[in-house]
TrEMBL record:
Signal peptide: none
Source taxon at top rank: Bacteria
TM spans (from-to): 24-44
Taxonomic source organism: Streptomyces graminofaciens
Name of this chain's protein: DUF8175 domain-containing protein
Biased composition (Basic and acidic residues): 76-104
Span list, region Disordered: 48-106
One matching Pfam family: DUF8175
The keyword Cell inner membrane appears for this protein: no
Organism ancestry: Bacteria, Bacillati, Actinomycetota, Actinomycetes, Kitasatosporales
Length: 260
């Protein structure tokens, strides 16, 4: 189970719907974007979503800035990966446990799971990139990209790590209306607890992320990523929505949990 040293006590807010409580909004950066982009409405509709094909609704992408943290000028290898970005992509099985070298890395007031072998291997300001072309690489990319969308530098993340098209344009337009989450202050309560891979092929993956909030309450939501320009990128719906099927769950059973 996640053990990040953050307080686990209740906040006295549980009379409200769980997705509207400050503890959940603060527990990880991506929940801020969830609220902005209409995730609450999706949750109340019970929309399961999560179809990897949704990422292809926008126009065909053109070559963009280097997603591997080279500022767009580093060139690419014959396999489309950014220069200097090489990973072991042999394990194509859906993961049943976290990587052996998994650790937590601070991002603002929260913690994000990372791995020296699976990714991210490159850190260029807010853009953490170069993930393995595997199911586990997709999982780590989904955590990193969504979390960074709440902080200063989110626009660069959106431009370099979200599939181009109407969905990205809509997301940027809505995100621009919201203040950035502070990068310092009291550590987040709760955080990322686990994940499961709902679907995967080498072109796209849909992951379900498990969050823990105050009082050990849990919620899950699904995120889709697509392999493009040699790395995983977030794939929103055409209306900018990046989360599907937000729901409250009783515990972490059925999920691969992050272990220390």
């Amino acid at each position: 189970m996640l053990n990040s040293g953050r307080p686990r006590g209740g906040s006295g807010e549980w009379e409200q719907p769980f997705w509207q409580q400050r503890g959940w909004i603060a527990s990880a950066g991506f929940l801020l974007v969830l609220l902005v982009l209409g995730g609450v409405a999706m949750a109340t509709r019970g929309d399961g979503g999560g179809d990897p094909a949704r990422a292809g609704a926008g126009p065909s992408p053109s070559p963009t800035a280097d997603a591997g943290g080279n500022g767009g000028g580093g060139g690419k290898g014959d396999d489309g990966r950014p220069a200097g970005c090489r990973t072991d992509d042999s394990d194509q099985a859906k993961p049943s446990k976290a990587p052996k070298d998994f650790r937590w890395k601070a991002n603002g007031t929260g913690l994000v799971p990372v791995s020296k072998t699976v990714g991210p291997l490159k850190y260029d300001g807010p853009v953490w990139s170069c993930f393995a072309h595997t199911p586990m690489g997709a999982v780590l990319a989904a955590h990193s990209i969504t979390d960074h969308l709440s902080y200063t530098g989110w626009r660069e993340v959106a431009e370099r790590q979200i599939v181009p098209g109407a969905g990205r344009d809509a997301l940027i337009a809505e995100r621009a209306k919201v203040e950035d989450k502070p990068t310092s202050g009291k550590p987040d309560v709760g955080g990322y607890e686990g994940f499961t891979v709902l679907s995967y092929d080498k072109e796209a993956a849909t992951l379900m992320l498990l969050m823990r909030g105050p009082g050990n309450e849990y919620a899950s939501t699904s995120v889709t990523v697509r392999w493009q320009d040699g790395d995983w990128k977030l794939a929103p719906d055409t209306d900018g929505t990046i989360y599907a099927g937000m729901s409250k769950v009783s515990d972490s059973r059925g999920f691969v949990t992050w272990e220390v």
